[in-house]
Amino acid sequence: MPLYEHVMIARQDLSGTQAEGLIEHFGTVLSDNGGKVVESEYWGLKTMAYKINKNRKGHYAYIRTDAPSEAVQEMERLMRLHEDVMRVLTVKVDAHEDGPSVQMQKRDERDRGDRGDRGDRGDRGDRGDRGDRGERRERR
């Protein structure tokens, strides 16, 4: 069966548990039509770049599925009709990547306080592309 990835944005006035309930609801719609949910992630309430239906924020959810195209079309149809779902994006992929999505990896890095290779102080390190600035004068 084909593999798909879906991103859904739900209204901001839902609670987190209601948004996760939407993921489960659409997963059951998919399984009723012969597909299966491989993995799902709730990304949380995020600020959007522009307003959608007078909403500044939305609950983001990510779903990886293995389903026939008819099941995906039915799930998308029901998502678009559902009043709590603002946007849906579905992409057909050749293979699902192992591990968490990039969005969840960013959240983990932010929670741990990782700053990449900049060190603890946020130092940029050696900037080989810039020459020596010479002596600096004191500001008065």
CATH architecture of the domain at 3-95: 2-Layer Sandwich
Shape: elongated
Main CATH class of the domain at 3-95:
Alpha Beta
Q: What gap, in angstroms, lies between the N and C termini?
A: 71 Å
**Order of adjacent strands in the largest pleated sheet:** 2-3-1-4
Count of individual beta strands: 4
SSE ordering: EHEEHEH
Topology:
Elements (H helix, E strand, L loop, with lengths): L2 E9 L4 H17 L3 E17 L2 E12 L2 H13 L3 E9 L8 H11 L28
Antiparallel strand pairs: 1-3, 1-4, 2-3
3D structure, described in words:
- The chain is of the alpha+beta class.
- It has a domain at 3-95: 2-Layer Sandwich (Alpha-Beta Plaits), CATH 3.30.70.60.
- Helices cover 29% and strands 34% of the residues.
- It has three helices and four strands.
- The chain has helices at 16-32, 69-81, 102-112, and strands at residues 3-11, 36-52, 55-66, 85-93.
- The chain has a four-stranded antiparallel sheet with strand order 2-3-1-4, with helices on one face.
- A hairpin with a 2-residue loop joins strand 2 and strand 3.
- Helix 1 packs antiparallel against helix 2 (69-81).
- The mean pLDDT is 84.
